[in-house]
Design a protein that fits this description.
mainly alpha, 5 helices, 44% helix, rod-shaped
C-alpha cells in the first residue's frame, strides 16, 4: 500500500496508524521531537550503584529500628547510634557536700 500523504510504501496492517500519525499537527510533531531530543541529552541525575549501596549500608547501621542489621537485629539501638556504640557521657563533676571527708574528691 502506498501512502497518499507521504508517498511511502507501508504494510496494509499499519495503514490506519500511518494515517493517524501523518495527519497530526506538524507543530505538535516538531515540539514532541524537540522534547525527546532534549530529554536524551540531559545529564543522568541518578547516583551510581556503588554510591547507593554504601549509603544504604551506613543508614542501616544507624537505623536498626528500620533495617534490623545482622545477628543483633532483635536489639534496637538509639536512633543515630551504631550497634555496640555507647553514648559518651562527660564525667560528672562532684560537688562538695560540706563534709570534710568529701572535700578532697570534690576538689579534683
Amino acid at each position: 500500500l502506498i501512502s497518499p500523504i507521504t508517498g511511502e510504501r507501508i504494510p496494509a496492517s499499519q495503514a490506519a496508524e500511518h494515517m493517524k500519525v501523518g495527519l497530526l499537527d506538524p507543530r505538535w510533531v516538531e515540539e514532541r521531537d524537540k522534547q525527546i531530543s532534549q530529554k536524551a541529552s540531559e545529564e543522568v541525575v541518578y547516583a551510581p550503584g556503588q554510591s547507593i549501596e554504601s549509603s544504604l549500608k551506613q543508614l542501616a547501621e544507624r537505623r536498626s529500628d528500620i533495617f534490623g542489621v545482622g545477628d543483633e537485629a532483635d536489639q534496637e539501638t538509639v536512633i543515630g547510634k551504631k550497634m555496640g556504640e555507647e553514648e559518651v557521657r562527660p564525667a560528672e563533676k562532684m560537688t562538695w557536700d560540706g563534709h570534710a571527708t568529701s572535700a578532697e574528691s570534690a576538689a579534683r
